[in-house]
Amino acid sequence: MPLPELDDGMHIVEALMSVGPMGSAGMGPSVVTWPEIESWHRSTCSSLKPHELSLLRELSAEYLGQWLEAKDRNCASPELIKPLAVDAKRLALHIKNLLRG
User: Three-state DSSP class for 25?
Assistant: First the structure.
């Protein structure tokens, strides 16, 4: 069975930034909650599939973890930079080749 065509996944990152990469709890930042994701999904009429919505929550947890680690001045910032179109195509091809084994 052939593998599906892959894109660079930036639509997921853009969705995360639209939802907000972190939520807010009483004592500080938190992972974006399911109700927040569901509300965003409904209010924006997003076309994300259920597994992509799950990925948003996982990415939020990773973003928060990196954000907390970044308080150490020797740690890299959790910035997200959209790759150039040429790099995105090369990255998609690289991922596809890795999945083929």
Answer: strand
Distance between alpha carbon 11 and the CA centroid of its chain, in Å?
Answer: 8
CB contact at 8 A, 49 and 11: no
Using DSSP bridges, classify how beta strands 28-30 and 23-25 pair: parallel, antiparallel or unpaired. antiparallel
**pTM exceeding 0.70:** no
Length of the chain equals: 101
Separation between Cα atoms, residue 13 and residue 28, nearest integer Å: 23
What is d(CA 29, CA 24) in angstroms, rounded to the nearest whole number?
A: 4
pLDDT digits (tens, 9 = 90+) for 5-15: 657 788 888 99
Scored b (16 or more CB within 10 A) or e, 41-74 reads: beeeebebeeeebebbbebbeebbeeeeeeeeee
Quick one: tokens of 61?
């947890």
Amino acid at 54: S
